[in-house]
Design a protein that fits this description.
mainly alpha; 54% helix; three-stranded antiparallel beta sheet; single chain; 238 residues
Length: 238
């Protein structure tokens, strides 16, 4: 009877706790999708060379990102405390996806770059925790583990930063001056499939195959024909 009394005195886990956490997860998922799109659109609409830009309605993406990261970290902590690894892993993926988009956005607008790097470091640690959670036998653990591993690879990639007009002019001057420099009237500039510029000297037409040093995409060509995806970088020759 004593054992029964002790067992009966243990408070049960509130039945609505998982429902509450599920609702918070759905909110974070929605916010991560909105932020991902907003960050990419805002980056595409950043001021051009003439200084003009298109402004998105509502708050700037960086103001929306900060509370999202904070809420996401708190949610992940709560999932660990409540032994709900599946929800926690999904939230780690939302965090890393947003951090992955936030860093290039900050670099493109030249704001909050250090903070963006901090978010990436936090995301990397959260993904390590998520990978540990995926060792537990919950539903779709293998699929989520693969998603975690892919996200970790993305966060580990080197970012290509767009050069400014001043930097671009300096690069062009260096390429066309000095012994062996590419003459402005002969060589041509090209972009790889991912937009990274490279130059071809002599006649300026591709005769050899190579790889982009920035991303590894095929560049160059054969018989004066570019490989698929390579385009002329007319901005470098203006």
């Amino acid at each position: 009877m004593t054992a029964l009394d002790v067992a009966d005195s243990v408070p049960p886990v509130p039945r609505d706790r998982r429902v509450t956490l599920g609702g918070r997860k759905a909110k974070l998922q929605f916010e991560s999708v909105v932020l991902f799109d907003s960050l990419n659109i805002a980056q595409a609409l950043k001021p051009n060379a003439l200084g003009s830009s298109i402004k998105l309605p509502g708050s700037p993406p960086e103001q929306l990102a900060k509370p999202f990261f904070k809420d996401c970290e708190a949610f992940i902590h709560d999932c660990g405390a409540e032994s709900l690894p599946k929800l926690g892993v999904e939230a780690c993926l939302y965090y890393s996806r947003t951090a992955f988009s936030f860093q290039p956005y900050c670099r493109s607008v030249k704001k909050n770059c250090d903070q963006a790097s901090d978010y990436v470091l936090i995301a990397t640690k959260l993904l390590e925790k998520a990978k540990e959670w995926c060792s537990r036998p919950f539903e779709n653990a293998d699929g989520l583990r693969r998603a975690v591993e892919e996200s970790a690879k993305l966060l580990g990639r080197e970012w290509y930063e767009e050069v400014s007009a001043v930097e671009l002019a300096a690069i062009k001057a260096a390429m066309t001056s000095g012994q062996g420099g590419m003459a402005t009237h002969s060589g041509h500039w090209y972009n790889c499939a991912n937009g990274h510029p490279f130059a071809i000297g002599e006649c300026g037409m591709p005769m050899e195959l190579a790889r982009c040093p920035e991303c590894g995409a095929p560049i160059g060509g054969q018989n004066h024909r570019e490989v698929q995806g390579v385009t002329r970088a007319t901005a470098m020759e203006d």
